[in-house]
What does this fold into?
Amino acid sequence: MIHILKTRILKGVVTRNIDPELISRIKSSGSELKSTISKKFGRSLHIRVVDSGSCGACESEINAANNPIYDLQRFGINFVASPRHADCLLVIGPVSKNMLIALKKTYEAMSEPKFVITCGFCALNGGLFKGSYYVEGAVNDIFPVTLHIPGCPPTPLQIISSLTSLLQKT
Amino acid sequence: MAGTEIVARIKKVLPDFNPLSVLRVYGDEISLKVRPQDFKDTCHALHKILPSPVMMLFACDERKTRESFAIRCVFVDFKNSQWIIVSMDIPQENPTFETLAKSMHSASLFEREIREMFGIEPKGNPDLRRLRLHDEVWPEGNYPLRKDFKITQTGNLSNYKFARVEGDGIFEVPVGPVHAGIIGPGHFRFSVAGEPIINLELRLGFTHRGVEKLFESKIYSDAVALSECVSGDSSFAHTLSFVQAAEKISGVTVPARAIILRAVFLELERMYNHINDIGGIALDVGFSFPHAYASIIKETILLLNENLSGSRYLRRVNLVGGVSQDIDENKKQFLLKSLKAIKYDFNELVKILNSSVSFMDRVDTTGVLRRKTAEDLGVVGLVARASGIPTDLRGYFPGPYRNAKFKMITQESGDVLARLRVRISEFEESIRLIEAFAEKLDKPGELRVNMCIKEGSALGYAEGWRGPVLYWLETNSSGLIERCKIVDPSFLNWQGLSFAVFGNIIPDFPLCNKSFDLSYSGNDL
It folds into this structure.
């Protein structure tokens, strides 16, 4: 205990200086997102992510949106482990034939009311993989999609700002 | 020298070896054409004398031009910095070949792939189950990589058979394809007796998108964009490997400055992925502070990438013939300044990890992949280096790395700790390399040259952060792609994971998995 206190006092707080411009941009779009979410959903929005065949870049960016710099959670967005806990399904990737059943089952496992967001060009219409023998194509043909976050991959800031503007519209 | 030296070496093992042709196609590529009945023995001889695992084994549909299928097997000769490609023709009626997998296990997955994609039967291979075209959604008898493939399928669906372990008290735990975290899809089936895992069967292929077919009849610029999306976290290594193959075919010499810039970007990609995994390993034992710290460092590198190249994942940088982005004096100073800050943070992070006894206790001796197993499976890249196999393309092939005195990092124990240590040392080495490369960026110079369209085939290779990314490319006379075979290191390394978890408990599986951190999309293509 004494050891911990000693290093704590000697070392100070381990923090990093982040570009103040970036911080202010995150804060301004984030606070807007927060107020939209508290208006539309009560307090928070719980999202379940399903990868239906993406290359991994969209996942990496969604993970980055949860890092201490962007920290999506403080604006009321939670990524959950089970579809049973989710209000919303976030689909990334161009829906490969092998993932179709799993994707449908995940959607069915969610309780009502529920809605679907797609993220990245692949999920919109197949993107670069459109026309492949093993790609089902647009998520919209499988179940109704409410929102789409554009980008390949969208940056964390784009995820925050497009979520805000899209949620405000609906 | 037209590859006579390698023929002499094979003759020592196989006295009556008589190839149809021996050709040094490029400075670093020898092509050996053999009769079908000699193929197996030649491959086995090369496997033993080099020694090298099967790096690639693939088929090409050449029925239109030559009325046969071709099968090519690629080995790497580190000592002489060259690749050896053995090929044979298979008649189009009733196409079969004798299995290589019985004497070289590393050929096994490739043979299954050839069978499902081309319908060429590897005679004698005990495991012919399909990898990517799942039996439940894709009827047997439709071979997508044949040139006369039609998109409408016919036939009946069937079911996949998992290997079953039977006995008293043994139960199965199926996991996936949809996982709890934000990661790719894959199905893991554990057979467990009490706590320890006694068998793990991986069923992948969920992100199969038919990439190799999509490459066909594309022009170079479209194909570069597609290669970025094969595996999103190693975009740069994939494009680099692709453009190198294309440059070899067109015969252009890439400007020296572009080669250095490519090396800088390749190391930046390695850095952000290694730090992500170091943080991930800490998170998977429930140690969340280093994870948060590592994700800040990762974000710093991603922002640095954006600043240097305009893309966080270094996309749209590589072109056939050079690069599109320059690092000028201002950017160079910014790069060096950022590296200094990153280095400070990284050292702090490593101190935190090393001083935590409970963390070290969890990673030490967990998920051991023995050297013998790794060699037999043909495991490559970072995972192989952690098991004591000195394999790294950067160290064996000429280029900027040799001039910068590249130091290869290996560990002996093959456990999670070894893989963690390789990552930590490689991260430090990458910083040093980038600083050395930056010194050479003092004079402005040409960034790209125009490429010309030629017919031919070549092998492109780059040591990505997971391991060697290989592209074998064939173009026709109008410059369109005829065949593009991709091997991501994940394809060979997933098997390593299923052996590393033996005897470990299921709660340690995420930890072992993260220490390998393999790509789903790179494996499934």
Remarks:
- The first strand of chain A starts at residue 45 and ends at 51.
- Chain A has one domain: 34-169.
